[in-house]
Amino acid sequence: MHTDPIADMITRIKNGAQASKESVDIPASRMKLDILDILMKEGYIKGFKVVDDGKQGLIRVNLKYFNAKHVITDIKRVSKPGRRIYRKADDIQQVRRGLGVSIVSTSRGVMTDRKAKANNVGGEEILRVW
Description:
alpha+beta; three-stranded antiparallel beta sheet; 10 strands
């Protein structure tokens, strides 16, 4: 059993990319689906689909490559179960001067740092991708 399912998802994506896998399977949850939806819209993964395995379900994530290199240079977990990081709308910082994306869980749902600033809502900073 994993104590941090989002960190497990990040590790599976990193390991799959390092092994040049076409796709990786991740146990399904609503939060993971929201995060993967943002990663797809931002162009970091090709796509994903939910596969029924008779239990909680699996998410099959199709990884994206450009010139045989994974599109995600790095992905880091910011807020962890032992230490939650909350940011006000004014305190949300750009990732790599706007080249990356920070994913924030707000009262209006999971969104990117740019969308959270535009809507003037803060929340828990889940992860950063570049």
